[in-house]
Amino acid sequence: VRTSENMFLTPFLQTMHHTSSAVPTLVQVATRTTYVLHNIPACCSARYNLALLAFFGFFLLYALRVNLSVALVDMVEPNTSIAKNTTSNVCPEHSSTINVPRNTTGEKYSWDADTQGWILGSFFYGYIITQIPGGYLASKIGGKLLLGFGIFGTSVFTLLTPLAANLGVGYLIAVRALEGLGEGVTFPAMHSMWSSWAPPLERSKLLSISYAGAQLGTVVSLPLSGLICYYMNWIYVFYIFGALGVLWFFFWMWLVSDTPEMHRSISHPEREYILSSLKDQLSTQKSVPWRPILESLPLWAIVVAQFSYNWTFYTLLTLLPTYMKEILRFDAQENGFLSALPYFGCWLCIILSGQIADYLREKQNLSTVCVRKCFTLIGMIGPAVFLVAAGFIGCNYALAVAFVTISTTLGGFCTSGYSINHLDIAPSYAGILLGITNSFGTIPGMVGPVIAKNLTHNNTVEEWQTVFYIAASINLFGAIFFALFGSGEVQDWAVSGYHLHRN
C-alpha cells in the first residue's frame, strides 16, 4: 500500500490538483485512510486508556470478591471453624507458626462450618443471576453505566459488610448475594464495550490487559487482606477496598465513553481507525436473534470450554490448598506469598499471551481460529496434566506449590483462547454471549467443591486422586470439544442484513 502510494498516488494528486477541485478531496480521503491504518499510536490512546481503567476496575472487583475468604478466618471464633474431615497421617506435620503480637479487637462470631460455607457460597448465587440480563442490558443501554454501577454497588455493599455481620448471618448472606448481583453484570458489560472499541487485530492485547486486573487483584488482595487483619482489624479489609472501589467509579464515569463516537477527547484518526476496522462486523439490528444464538455450535463450544476450564480452575485453587493442608499437612495460608504466587503467574501469562496472540495473527498471518484453538489447548490440557500429577507428589510440599503455580499460569493462555472468542464470532452480541457462557461457567464454582468434598470423606490419597482425575478429564473434554467446533469467523446471524435475508 505504501509503495503504491509513493509511486502512483502522489503524482496523481499533483496532476489532479490543477485539473479538478473534487478529485483531490477523494485522494485526501484515501491518504487519510492510509494514515489512519498505519499511524495510530497505542500509547495514551483512548482505547488503551479504556483498557487501563478496566484493568484497575477488575483489580478492585476481585479484591472485593476474595477479601471475605481471608477476613472470615478472623471473624469466626477458633473453636467453630474446625473442619469436619479428619486430617490424614500420611505425611509428617510441618510447623511454621511464629508468635507475633497482633490486633485481636475484631468482633468474633459463632459460625459453624456449614454456616461459613453458606456465607462464602452466597456470592455465586447472586453472581449467576445477572449474567445474561447483564449482557442484554449492556447491548441496550451501553456497558459504561452497567460496569460502573456494578462495581460501585459491589463497593457499597462491601462497606456495609461489617454492619451486616453484626446484625446477623442472614444479613451477611444477603449482602454477599447482592455483591454477586453487582459483579455479575461486569464481564458481559466489558465485553459489550470492547465490541465497539477493540479493532479485530488488537482484541487479544486490549482484552488481556483489562481482564488481567482480576488476577493481579487476587495477587495483591490475598496477602494484603491478611496483613490488614493481622495488624489492624478485619473490618478495615472491607472499608479500605470498598472505599477504593467508590473512588474508581468517579474516574470511570468521568473518563470513559460507551463508543468512540461519544468519546470527548479521542483523536480523529483513532476514531476513524476503530470505526473502519469494525464496520463490517457489527449489526444494526435492534432485536436480539435469540434462536440463532442458542443454535450456534461455535457458541456452545465456548460454553463447554468455559465450564470445563472453570471446573479445573476451582478444583485447583479451592481444593488443592485443602489437599496440601489435610494430606501434606502444610497450610498454604501460613505464607501469603505462596498463596498469591499462582495468581501472579496467571496474571503474567495473560498479559504475555495477549501480545503473542495478536502478533501471530497480525505478523505471522495465522488465522484467528487457529490462534484461539491453540491457546485454548495449551491453557486447558496443561492444567489438567499438572492437576493429575498433584495426586502423585507424595509428601513433597515444594513440588505441590510448583505444580499449582504452573497449572494456574498455563491457564492464562485461555484468556486469548476461548475466553475472548465471543468477540470473534459475534461482536455486536458479545455481552449477551458472555452472559450465557459465564452462567454455565459459574456452575462449577457452586457444585464442583461440593462433589469433591463428598468424595473425600476419609481424606485418603486415593480419594483425592479420584477428584483430580475427574477434573482433568472434564478439562480435556472441553479442550477437545472447542478444538473441534470452535470458530474464528463472524457468524451470519451476527451481522446486519441476516434477518432481512431470512425474511
UniProtKB/TrEMBL annotation:
Alphabetical list of CDD domains matching this protein: MFS_SLC17A5
Keywords annotated in UniProt: Cell membrane, Cytoplasmic vesicle, Glycoprotein, Lysosome, Membrane, Symport, Synapse, Transmembrane, Transmembrane helix, Transport
Main location: membrane
Any one GO molecular function term: symporter activity
Location relative to the cell: Basolateral cell membrane; Cytoplasmic vesicle, Secretory vesicle membrane; Cytoplasmic vesicle, Secretory vesicle, Synaptic vesicle membrane; Lysosome membrane
SUPFAM superfamilies assigned: MFS general substrate transporter
Topology in membrane: Multi-pass membrane protein
Sequence intervals crossing the membrane: 48-68, 118-138, 145-165, 206-228, 234-255, 297-317, 337-354, 374-393, 399-420, 432-452, 464-485
Superkingdom of this protein's organism: Eukaryota
UniProt keyword Glycoprotein present: yes
A Pfam family hit: MFS_1
GO biological processes: carboxylic acid transport; monoatomic anion transport
Enzymatic reactions: L-aspartate(out) = L-aspartate(in); D-glucuronate(out) + H(+)(out) = D-glucuronate(in) + H(+)(in); N-acetylneuraminate(in) + H(+)(in) = N-acetylneuraminate(out) + H(+)(out); N-acetyl-L-aspartyl-L-glutamate(out) = N-acetyl-L-aspartyl-L-glutamate(in)
Record GO cellular component, one term: basolateral plasma membrane
Domain Major facilitator superfamily (MFS) profile: 50-490
PROSITE patterns registered for this protein in UniProt: MFS (PS50850)
Record PANTHER family: SIALIN (PTHR11662:SF432), SOLUTE CARRIER FAMILY 17 (PTHR11662)
Role according to the record: Receptor for CM101, a polysaccharide produced by group B Streptococcus with antipathoangiogenic properties.
Protein name: Sialin
Source organism per UniProt: Athene cunicularia (Burrowing owl)
Gene responsible for this protein: SLC17A5
